[in-house]
Amino acid sequence: MRNSVSIIFQSKPEQWGLRGDPYLWDELEQEFTDISLPCSKMCFIGHFKNHFHKLTNHPFDTDTDSFTMEEYDHGGMSSGQISVRFWRERGLPLLLKRLEKISGE
User: Fold this and answer.
1) How far apart are CA 65 and CA 58, in angstroms?
2) Count of CB atoms situated within 10 Å of the CB of 40
3) Which residues contact 8 (CB under 8 A, 6 or more apart)?
4) Which stretches of the chain are assigned E, i.e. beta strand?
5) Inter-residue contact 27 to 91 (CB < 8 Å)
6) What was the pLDDT predicted at 72?
7) What gap in Å lies between CA 13 and CA 7, rounded to an integer?
8) Average pLDDT per consecutive 10 residues, the chain (105 residues; last block may be shorter)
C-alpha cells in the first residue's frame, strides 16, 4: 500500500460536499491500491474518471451537480448523495496536489 497511489487518500478532507462523499472516497482509496507509484497526473485523472464511473454508474463529466447512491444511504436527509461539484472543485484537485507532492512533479 505504501507504494500505491492509494496513499494520497489516507488523510481525509476536513469538509465534504454531501454525506455520500466519504463513502465514495473510501471506495476510491481501495480502487487505487492496485495502481503503483509513480503515476503521472494524466494517468491518475484517467484512472480516477474510470473508477468514479465504475463505482457510481455516473460519468465524472456529467452535467448534474449531485446524485444519490442507495448503497451509501445510511439514513438522514442527504444520506447517500454524491456531490459532483465537490469532486470537481475540491476532491480531485486535492488528490492531484497530493500526488504532485509525492511524485515531485
Assistant:
1) 11
2) 11
3) 32, 95, 98, 99, 102
4) 66-68, 81-83
5) no
6) 82
7) 14
8) 87 94 97 94 97 96 88 76 95 97 78
- The residues, ordered by sequence, that sit 6+ positions from 97 with a Cβ below 8 Å of its Cβ are none
DSSP conformational letter for 61: T
Question: Do residues 23 and 86 lie in contact, with contact meaning Cβ atoms separated by under 8 Å?
Answer: no
Q: Grid cell 507532492 — which residue?
A: 101
Cα 82-90-58 angle, rounded to 5 deg: 35
Which H/E stretch holds residue 75? none
Q: Is 54 exposed, middle or buried (0-12, 13-18, 19+ CB in 10 A)?
A: exposed
